[in-house]
Write a structure and sequence with these properties.
610 residues, alpha/beta, Rossmann fold, Arc Repressor Mutant, subunit A, 4 domains, 27 helices, 46% helix
Length: 610
Amino acid sequence: MNSPALDLLRRVFGHAEFRGQQAAVVEHLVDGGDCLVLMPTGAGKSLCYQVPALLREGTGIIISPLIALMQDQVEALEQLGVRAACLNSSLPGDQAARVEAQLVAGELDLLYVAPERLLTERFLALLGRSRLALFAIDEAHCVSQWGHDFRPEYRELNLLHERWPQVPRIALTATADPPTRREIAERLDLADAPCFITSFDRPNIRYRVVLKDNARQQLLDFLQPRPGQAGIVYCLSRRKVEETAAFLCARGIQALPYHAGLDAGVRAANQRRFLREEGIVMVATIAFGMGIDKPDVRFVAHLDLPKSVEGYYQETGRAGRDGDPAEAWLCYGMGDVVTLGQMIAQSGAGEERQRLERRKLDLLLGYCESTRCRRQSLLAAFGEDHPGGCGNCDNCLEPPRTWDGTVAAQKALSCVYRTGQRFGVTHLVDVLRGADTERMRQLGHDQLSTYGIGTELSAQQWKGVFRQLVALGLLDVDIEGHGSLRLTADSRAVLRGEQAVSLREEVVRKRERERSARTAPAAVQLAPADQPVFEALRELRAALAREQAVPAYVIFHDATLRTIAERRPGSLAELGTVGGVGAAKLERYGPRVLEVLDDAQEHRLQARVD
């Protein structure tokens, strides 16, 4: 049975049906109810407020934290024939005034605005003179003081409900663990509103974690089997961003840097190239990404450990928004744990906040060292059960070998204790392997009972033991002590022989490089006869995008072009049945698409004659 919402979805957006809980959210919002929506990136959160905004009288006000997201969404909506606009600091004064006039006159279906502008008395007065369909608070996790993307202005957005209690509100996020969800509901006065939760699983993303051993070369080993793919490489520091981008460019990879220290014009130009050109690799700090709506990002690589599982999920979620196979590659080492711990200690945050940040870091390290299904571990952090065995992560594709590390753990923990819990991994490994150095003799550590008792393992293997003991909570990193290791309460049971310890085997880099290339997910394949048609359609899309100075994906997604290449519709009516081709795009681009298909048919017939 058709409904006004479903009819609009098909006519405007070109989708045959709603997905998951979209229909329930849309119906609730159209009826005037408030709600909180948690959906993973790529699950269609935007439709949850765009469709109701078009069905209800007035303008839908979308609160969004980033200019890039606003512009992206507005360009995509304009392609669909929707009256959309945004108000932000990038607009010239006369253009902003024109948008404000359109709002008051009721000439806009959706208006995107930053929270800072929304909260000004001048803009609130404009809203008071306007007909409002709904308020959509996007990236709602920004309300959380303990979150990775905290924005102070988000905490004041409850005034929307106070001033306009009759206007429905929807808060949306793709990243929120249970405590963050509770905080969102409390801060935005949504405690009594229903919460629509879709699985956080992104089944098209392949998760892979590797241990640092010349990280830059490891990144190159990962990228070289994936030529021409668009991706994001995250680094912890601005300096590392620029050095890594230069390193990749020198090796023939189109890489651009992005961090908050760059000139604003350079940042904007690099972001524009990433969005509008094919195969660009953006090397960036986490200043880049939130709100980036580019659907064909094929990988997200982390050259350093992120700050939390929540941040890791948010950042990796920028890959594969189009549903095609994508990868999340993470390269980490013990040095990352020390560096991030020092950043937490030097942040100036209160003790409670620092404790929480350290717990989040411990959880992420545990994820890296775990031998179980990555997807199972990741989703558990968001309170979601997964049976494991996903078949699309490194631990499932090539299960890691484990060994009984109880004795090795006892030796390592004893060495930490005997040296006074004041030394880092490098020195502890030297003690265990009996290094004959002047420093060893000066400290008197060559006289310890643990001196030279670990010659059966290599230095690399011992480093792996210490790293895993930290991940298991049996050792703690003393950040103020420059990375020295200390025993925890849990280590006592291991030392007494009351608890066994299972450790994962270290993987040498050569095997790792071979495995990275071998386990790359297969790209979506077309039949050989359809591939030239697909490429011709991509050329048309590129030309249309250049004509309008918009990203190619706002014209058509690759999935839409693949379907057209496979079906070869012979009329506008047939083309209109393809997912992603709404009425406005059919009218605007349909004839030129059919021309491409006609040309392809002529070439095929000519080839048969020849």
